[in-house]
Amino acid sequence: MHETESPEDLPPPPVKTDDKHPYAILQNRDFKLYLIGRLVAVLGQQMFTMALGWEIYERTCQTPYSALALGLVGLTLMVPMFLFTLPAGHIADNYNRKRIIVLMTAVMAAASLGIAVISALQAPIYWIYVCLFISGTARTFSWAANAAFLPALVDRKDFRGR
Questions:
Q1: SS3 readout for the chain
Q2: What is the pLDDT along the chain (162 residues), one digit of tens a residue?
Q3: C-alpha atoms less than 13 angstroms from C-alpha of 88 in its C-beta half-sphere
């Protein structure tokens, strides 16, 4: 300690916790940042999906196929999951997971931006479904990479919590 520093100016010592605490994993800085980032991303995706449903309903409410148009949103997001889950897992196991996550996040952002432009220009609705399919495909690859990325982020002993 320097002469100009007082004990009050020093940061507190790190808190030692029992490794058996069920929430000890939350002391891992990288895991905490990852968890907060995932929470923000999921909340954003849910808000976007709600706004998208509203947009499609507003554009199709005067037509007899309004319910079908809304149902196709979920179908368009789920079809890529059925088609690409196995290839996504293979790619996540054999390539850099961090790059996959970053790339797929950029693809999802581009698809969302495309939907925003389509909405602003009142372009045909089928373009929304094209962007949703691209977003669903990117989400499938991102989920596989995220699932495989977590064990690399946290030590195996930290998963137990007992």
A1: CCCCCCCCCCCCCCCCCCCCCCCHHHHCHHHHHHHHHHHHHHHHHHHHHHHHHHHHHHHHCCCCCHHHHHHHHHHHHHHHHHHHHHHHHHHHHHCCHHHHHHHHHHHHHHHHHHHHHHHHHCCCCHHHHHHHHHHHHHHHHHHHHHHHHHHHHCCHHHHHCC
A2: 455 545 555 455 544 545 567 777 778 888 888 889 889 988 998 999 899 999 999 999 888 888 899 999 999 999 999 999 999 999 999 999 989 999 999 999 999 999 999 999 999 999 999 999 999 999 999 999 988 887 778 777 766 655
A3: 22
